């Protein structure tokens, strides 16, 4: 959420809540994955949080559907009452989730014995707090035209709509429910068409809603010491999988709309298609542009083109690294071939696709979402970028460049 959008419309705010709660749900899953021996009460606590975030996400998404289908309703007094309450509930959940995460290492022996567990929890807690900071910035800028319910900055968990703490040791403050009914629907992976046991051959189209998670081209620990095994497992198996699931869901919903002729929600599913599709495709390329035998400098035609487009390799590397380090929030830095300009360019994207450009072929993407590096590098993105250069698979990038540079549109 950025103030550059001007006053935040209800639909836009609901989109952000959906994204926000999706991230928090993933974070709860990640913690359980990091600590397979987590004591049952604390594992149950995290599962309860996953359900709370899923229900809030679904509630916000259903409200988003209604707002898109009935634009006039989104400016009614009913919405003026609904949105502040939904936003305050979402914030209260995040505050309590963050508070409980900070207490967990004090009470969970399994968690306290995991290396770097406190770093992971601090990162996840900080991500939840980030949304609260963004809200404050939007309110100060006037981007949100209404105020929160009275009592706004109360830090008590009353009304947060989340799970009760797992035991009394975490229950240092009273908790309560907001009384609002939430849909009993949670997000799940979309069943995919049966495409048989054989691997799809090159050129066969992916069935609608049939995208799958590509296997890593190396072991989880192959990129050590630059990128650690635990990060690779979570990044590939959890985060990338979520984009595959989201893409399949969006494709299936759009196919359903084509069948029924009901396109009232087309904007929502097109946005889901863009976000999750870009996330899936960039990650699929990201795994291949790294190698345990990577690093060094490119050679041959690719190096020649880098020198032509950027002056020299060092200038290219410096610009790419600086661009990656300055991406706001989560996003990417990407070396691309421009068929229109007939040269290489460096682009950045917030999330996976925002504030980037079309008509370019990605060659070398670098994921700078914090989930790509926080377990090893914490908040030191620049250190992660420096390490990443040691695993760049230049032969693969050059092969991709040689194919891409055959695309040459009329230059303008």
TrEMBL record:
Domain Manganese/iron superoxide dismutase N-terminal: 211-291
UniProt xrefs under InterPro entries: Fe/Mn_Superoxide_Dismutase (IPR050265), Mn/Fe_SOD (IPR001189), Mn/Fe_SOD_BS (IPR019833), Mn/Fe_SOD_C (IPR019832), Mn/Fe_SOD_N (IPR019831), Mn/Fe_SOD_N_sf (IPR036324), SOD_C_sf (IPR036314)
Domain (Manganese/iron superoxide dismutase C-terminal) ranges: 298-400
First and last residue of the signal peptide: none
EC class name: oxidoreductase
Database matches in PROSITE patterns: SOD_MN
SUPFAM superfamilies the record matches: Bacillus cereus metalloprotein-like, Fe,Mn superoxide dismutase (SOD), C-terminal domain, Fe,Mn superoxide dismutase (SOD), N-terminal domain
Keywords: Metal-binding, Oxidoreductase
Region (Disordered): 145-184
Pfam family, one: Sod_Fe_N
GO MF entries: metal ion binding; superoxide dismutase activity
EC annotation from Swiss-Prot or TrEMBL: 1.15.1.1
PANTHER family, per database record: SUPEROXIDE DISMUTASE 2, SUPEROXIDE DISMUTASE [MN], MITOCHONDRIAL
Record-stated family: Belongs to the iron/manganese superoxide dismutase family.
Protein name (record): superoxide dismutase
Organism: Cohnella lupini
């Amino acid at each position: 959420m950025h103030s550059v959008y001007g006053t935040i419309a209800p639909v836009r705010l609901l989109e952000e809540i959906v994204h926000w709660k999706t991230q928090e749900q993933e974070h709860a899953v990640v913690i359980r994955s990091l600590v397979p021996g987590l004591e049952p009460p604390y594992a149950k606590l995290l599962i309860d949080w996953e359900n709370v975030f899923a229900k809030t996400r679904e509630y916000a998404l259903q409200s988003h559907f209604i707002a898109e289908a009935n634009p006039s309703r989104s400016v009614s007094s009913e919405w003026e009452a609904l949105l502040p309450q939904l936003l305050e509930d979402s914030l209260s959940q995040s505050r309590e989730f963050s508070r409980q995460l900070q207490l967990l290492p004090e009470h969970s022996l399994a968690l306290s014995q995991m290396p770097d567990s406190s770093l992971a929890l601090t990162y996840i807690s900080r991500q939840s707090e980030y949304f609260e900071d963004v809200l404050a910035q939007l309110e100060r800028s006037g981007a949100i035209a209404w105020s929160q319910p009275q009592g706004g900055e109360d830090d008590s968990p009353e009304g947060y709509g989340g799970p009760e703490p797992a035991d009394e040791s975490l229950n240092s403050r009273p908790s309560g429910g907001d009384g609002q009914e939430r849909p009993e629907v949670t997000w799940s992976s979309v069943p995919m068409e049966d495409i048989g046991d054989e691997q799809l051959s090159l050129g066969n189209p992916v069935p609608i809603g049939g995208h799958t998670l590509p296997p890593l081209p190396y072991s989880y620990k192959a990129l050590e010491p630059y990128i650690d095994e635990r990060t690779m497992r979570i990044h590939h198996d959890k985060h990338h999988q979520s984009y595959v699931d989201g893409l399949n869901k969006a494709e299936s919903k759009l196919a359903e709309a084509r069948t029924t002729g009901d396109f009232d929600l087309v904007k929502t599913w097109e946005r889901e298609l863009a976000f999750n599709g870009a996330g899936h495709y960039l990650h699929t390329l990201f795994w291949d542009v790294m190698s345990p035998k990577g690093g060094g400098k490119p050679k041959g035609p690719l190096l020649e083109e880098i020198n032509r487009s950027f002056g020299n390799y060092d200038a290219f590397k410096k610009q790419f690294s600086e661009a990656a380090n300055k991406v706001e929030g989560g996003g990417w830095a990407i070396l691309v071939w421009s068929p229109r300009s007939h040269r290489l360019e460096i682009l950045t994207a917030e999330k996976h696709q925002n504030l980037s450009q079309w008509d370019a072929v990605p060659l070398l993407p670098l994921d700078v979402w914090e989930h790509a590096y926080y377990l090893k590098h914490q908040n030191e993105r620049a250190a992660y970028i420096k390490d990443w250069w040691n695993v760049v698979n230049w032969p693969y990038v050059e092969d991709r460049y040689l194919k891409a540079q055959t695309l040459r549109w009329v230059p303008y």
